[in-house]
Design brief:
Shape: globular
Strand order of the largest sheet: 3-2-1-4-5-11-10
Largest sheet: 7 strands, mixed
Number of strands: 11
Helix content: 25-40%
Bound molecules: S-adenosylmethionine
Radius of gyration: 19 Å
Distance between the termini: 36 Å
Strand content: 25-35%
C-alpha cells in the first residue's frame, strides 16, 4: 500500500449512516473546552461534523479535514441546513495534511489509526505537529485494543484460523429520515498481531418494503495502538507535556476505560 492508498469505509451509504444516526455523544462536550481555549482549531478526521457543526453554531473558529469527500459533503450540507456558511473543509488524509492555516488546537476524535498502516500514522502525527502553532495543543482519543471483544480474540493464533469471518445474515438496521431502512454489517477479514493491523469489511445496504434495494461493499484498514505506544509516538514526534485522561472525563485512565485521551503541546520554540 502506498501513502495515497489509505482505505476507509466512510463513503457512500456509510457516510449517509453517519449523517443520519451519529449525531451525539459525550465527545462533543469533552473536546469543546479545548477548542474554546485555543482558536483557530482543526477537527482532523471530522467526518460528518458531529463535533464540528455544534462548535461552528457556537461561534467557534474551526476548520475540518477528512480523507472522505462523502463525509465532508454531509458535514457541509448539515452546516448549511443549520444556517451556517459552508465551513472550511479539506479532503486530505492525515498523513497528507497540508493546510493554509496554522492552528492553536488540533483534535482527532475517533480517527487515529484508521485508513492505513503504522507509517501513515507516524507521518500523520508529524503533519499535525507541523500544522500547529508553537505552544498549540493537540488532543487525540484512542480506543484501547482490548476494548473491542470481537477483534481482541484474533490476537490468539488459533482464533485467526476462523478469518475471514462469515457474514452475519442481518446487521444493525435503522430507519432513515427518508423512511428507508439502512443496514450495516461488518466482519473481520484479517488481523496481524505483529503489525497490530486489521482489515475489516462492511456491507452497507438500503431496504424498502422488506427488500434490499441497494448494497455497497467497503473496506477499512486500521492499526490498533496501546496507550504507552501512543504516548511514545507523540514524544517521538516532538510533543511535550503529554497528559493521559480517561475518555471522556477529567481523571486519569484506569484499566477499566475503553478510551484514553492524550493532551499534548507543541513546544513554544
Ligand atoms: C469514526 S469516524 C469519526 C468522525 C468524527 N471525528 C466524529 O467523531 O464524529 C472516523 C473518520 O475518520 C476518517 N478517516 C479515516 N481514515 C482517515 C485518514 N487516514 N485520514 C483522515 N481521515 C480519516 C473517516 O473518513 C471518518 O470520517
Amino acid at each position: 500500500m502506498t501513502a495515497s492508498q489509505a482505505q476507509t469505509w466512510h463513503h457512500g451509504l456509510v457516510a449517509r449512516w453517519w449523517a443520519e444516526f451519529n449525531l451525539d455523544g459525550p465527545e462533543i462536550e469533552y473536546f469543546r473546552r479545548f477548542v474554546e481555549a485555543g482558536q483557530p482549531a482543526l477537527d482532523a478526521a471530522c467526518g460528518t461534523g458531529r463535533l464540528l457543526v455544534p462548535y461552528l453554531l457556537a461561534g467557534l473558529d474551526v476548520d475540518g479535514c477528512d480523507i472522505s469527500p462523502d463525509m465532508l459533503a454531509r458535514a457541509s450540507e448539515r452546516a448549511v441546513r443549520e444556517g451556517l456558511d459552508p465551513p472550511n473543509l479539506y479532503a486530505q488524509a492525515l498523513h497528507e495534511l497540508d493546510l493554509p492555516r496554522r492552528y492553536r488546537t488540533i483534535f482527532v476524535c475517533g480517527g487515529f489509526g484508521l485508513g492505513g498502516h503504522r507509517a501513515h500514522d507516524v507521518e500523520g502525527l508529524r503533519r499535525i505537529f507541523e500544522q500547529l502553532e508553537p505552544g498549540g495543543t493537540f488532543v487525540l482519543d484512542n480506543e484501547v485494543p482490548y476494548a473491542d471483544v470481537h477483534l481482541w480474540q484474533y490476537w490468539l493464533e488459533e482464533n485467526r484460523a476462523d478469518l475471514p469471518r462469515e457474514w452475519r445474515a442481518e446487521g444493525d438496521r435503522r430507519v432513515g429520515s427518508d423512511g428507508a431502512e439502512y443496514e450495516l454489517r461488518s466482519r473481520v477479514a484479517s488481523f496481524d498481531p505483529l503489525s497490530q493491523h486489521a482489515t475489516v469489511e462492511m456491507k452497507a445496504a438500503i431496504w424498502r418494503d422488506g427488500r434490499r434495494i441497494l448494497e455497497e461493499d467497503h473496506v477499512l484498514q486500521m492499526t490498533l495502538y496501546f496507550t504507552h505506544e501512543v504516548e511514545l509516538m507523540l514524544r517521538a514526534t516532538g510533543f511535550v507535556e503529554i497528559e493521559l485522561r480517561a475518555g471522556y472525563e477529567d481523571r486519569s485512565p484506569t484499566s477499566e476505560d475503553d478510551f484514553v485521551v492524550f493532551v499534548a503541546k507543541k513546544p513554544l520554540a
